[in-house]
Design brief:
alpha+beta, globular, 104 residues
Length: 104
Amino acid sequence: VDDLGRFGEALMSGRLVSAATFDEMAKPRFRYHRGHYGDGVSSEVVAGRTILGHSGGHPGVGTELMLVPETGDVVVILSNGEFDGFFAAHAAAKRFVAGEDAST
């Protein structure tokens, strides 16, 4: 969790790649069910706030890195278990950083 948190902070601060490079990575290129996907970075608007990040999973594991450039928030979710618990944590994290909307 700590490593992914530092990774997210480094991405948003320009320490890992330049701000211009990160903007290019996050540029919406393909639509998917929650928003858009760029070059390794997803973007989703939740209650008017943009959340960037990346997720992954397989039966028994779920991961999420949420970055909120507007506030500087970084959320990391690592789950070993059923997806129901992961999705509940995911929705709670989105409510925490962005507020209520249909996706939370």
